[in-house]
Amino acid sequence: MALDAGGYPVTRSAGGVIRSAAGARDLAVLETRISGCRACPRLVAWREEVARVKRASFRDEEYWGRPVPGLGPADARIAVVGLAPAAHGGNRTGRVFTGDRSGDWIFAALWRAGLANQPTSTHLGDGLELTGVRVAAAVRCAPPDNAPTPQERDTCNPWLARELALLPDLRVAVVLGGFGWTALWPVLAAAGYRIPRPRPAFGHGVEVRLEGPRGPLTLLGSYHVSQQNTFTGRLTEPMLDAVLGRATALAGYPPLTP
């Protein structure tokens, strides 16, 4: 497998993503392979242009400008699945949901739920550690207008499928937004979970229990932590806390003491 200038294995096609993801033996290998993916030309061009031009407030920083891997331990019982990295958030910092206001929301909520050691995630090396939860995105590259195409979503799906497969204790998936909800169904079907027909519609607080080869998996829907939702009050902190509280209960984690 060829390496790019940063030393990451390069994947250039949808078929290559399938093969590269399937061959990743652990999360560390998967993260490295995700970081070298160039399978979607439109996304590659956009993420690299943003990294080159930069936002004025970050002009002195070196942008990551690559696909953004997930974050969290392999023994996580909870997965949080978002949409895609922000152009000047994860695409800049190299860590999912890090360096933007959406990240401020989700990591503060994970901290309140006892799943993170601190309420902020600003940059690599800031001391953040997650416990019991893995955070990832359905699409790994920052897309123009925050809108990946269906083809880009499907091309990226094998990365998510392998990531979830490498979480042997997974019991709950918290899905942020309708895009991630749609992306997750074919991933779970391919993994052997019995999918209801018709597929349940997305909604905040929706709960769906699936049976699969590794036991039950519960999907929990939550409005995305986008500024469009948080600024307008469509998603509030108590609403997000309620979903994560339900996730920790379903995962069998002890409740936080007051």
TrEMBL record:
InterPro entries linked: UDG_Type-4/5, UdgB-like, Uracil-DNA_glycosylase-like, Uracil-DNA_glycosylase-like_sf
Residue intervals passing through the bilayer: none
Gene3D superfamilies referenced in this protein's UniProt entry, alphabetically: Uracil-DNA glycosylase-like domain
CDD domains given in the database record: UDG-F5_TTUDGB_like (cd10031)
GO molecular function: 4 iron, 4 sulfur cluster binding; DNA-deoxyinosine glycosylase activity; metal ion binding; uracil DNA N-glycosylase activity
Pfam families: UDG
Keyword Hydrolase among UniProt keywords: yes
Top-level division of the source organism's lineage: Bacteria
GO biological process: base-excision repair
Domain Uracil-DNA glycosylase-like: 69-244
UniProt keyword annotation of Oxidoreductase present: no
Record keywords, A-Z: 4Fe-4S, DNA damage, DNA repair, Hydrolase, Iron, Iron-sulfur, Metal-binding
Family named by the database record: Belongs to the uracil-DNA glycosylase (UDG) superfamily. Type 5 (UDGb) family.
Protein name: Type-5 uracil-DNA glycosylase
Species the sequence originates in: Blastococcus tunisiensis
